[in-house]
């Protein structure tokens, strides 16, 4: 890691969740009317939420919110996705209509979901201004040929992520999900994970929307070319975002740093959210302590990054959709974990 300070205000150090509350939470959980440890990972989740809140038992997760960040990617014009980029604006409209997988799940689970266009390659006419007001540019440059963003664009994307998150937090947020939308975005995400974890393209590149065979080999080669192009600069997390990211990915990193700094726990989704989280951790060490894995994506880069941080997913349902959908599917279990902690009888009361 180089010592170059990023040109944006990154809060450091990120405060840690309350370890005393976590210890007391574990004692409380051990005393409930059940065999010791029998609620498995639900106990870990409850103790983590207690630590994030500094409260035992933890308060119910009434206000779960999701921020979905949309953008297109220049690399999508180079044969890395199974779908054309026109899908991205069409899906933004589907979100607005409440008929995307993520909006259906959010409605089912009472999660407030807001979608923002950071870099969709379309003017999205007719879509509410609230959705497009943070747009930085249309698409990004093809990252295997040139830097994805200029420094100025990356800064604007960062500021947008901070502003979006500050508004969401001001409205009251007990748990935050960061979702993504954008044809081609598994390629920059694989690059960010490779650079952060020091792994080769072959280990982190996956099928995305469904590329296989020769197309997957081509995608892997393109990730390798991008990493080679950027070289040592990729050691620096800010330069990594400028060179290999996109406006939506930069905003996602800013969202996670801002939420962690404000003491808001984050439930991670698939490859893209995890790529944002590992980059956030490199920029602002301590962010990952505020994160848990909502689900396991089928993407190899997501699995490797979760393993590095010892994060075990709540849901493992072979999902690979993005949008925040995997984390949204995990919300009922996380809520149950907290409810059990606060509502069960004590073993000593039996
Ligand atoms: O979150 C994941 O793990 C995930 C895995 C595969 C695909 N996606 C979604 O599919 C799109 C990117 O896939 P691709 O093949 O176009 O790079 C984008 O809209 C993502 O939300 C998401
Ligand atoms: C239809 C469709 C919906 C999506 N949602 C997230 N990524 C997506 C990719 C496609 C192709």
Give a verbal description of the structure:
There is one protein chain. The protein is α/β, with parallel strands linked by helices and 350 residues long. Helix content is 47%, strand content 11%. The strands form 2 sheets. It has a 5-stranded parallel beta sheet, with helices on both faces. A two-stranded parallel sheet has the order 6-7. Strand 4, helix 12 and strand 5 (291-293) form a beta-alpha-beta unit. Bound molecules: nicotinate mononucleotide and 5,6-dimethylbenzimidazole (DMD). Nicotinate mononucleotide is lined by residues 81-83, 180-187, 208-209, 269-272, 297, 299, 302, 320-323.
Number of domains: 2
pLDDT < 50 runs, ≥5 residues? none
Element pattern in H and E: HHEHHEHHEHHHHHEHEEHEH
Q: Report the CATH architecture of the largest domain.
A: 3-Layer(aba) Sandwich
Helix tally equals: 14
Main beta sheet, described?
Answer: 5 strands, parallel
Overall residue-averaged pLDDT value = 97
Q: What is the beta-strand fraction?
A: 5-15%
- What bound compounds does this protein have? nicotinate mononucleotide, 5,6-dimethylbenzimidazole
Termini Cα gap: 55 Å
Structure classification: alpha/beta
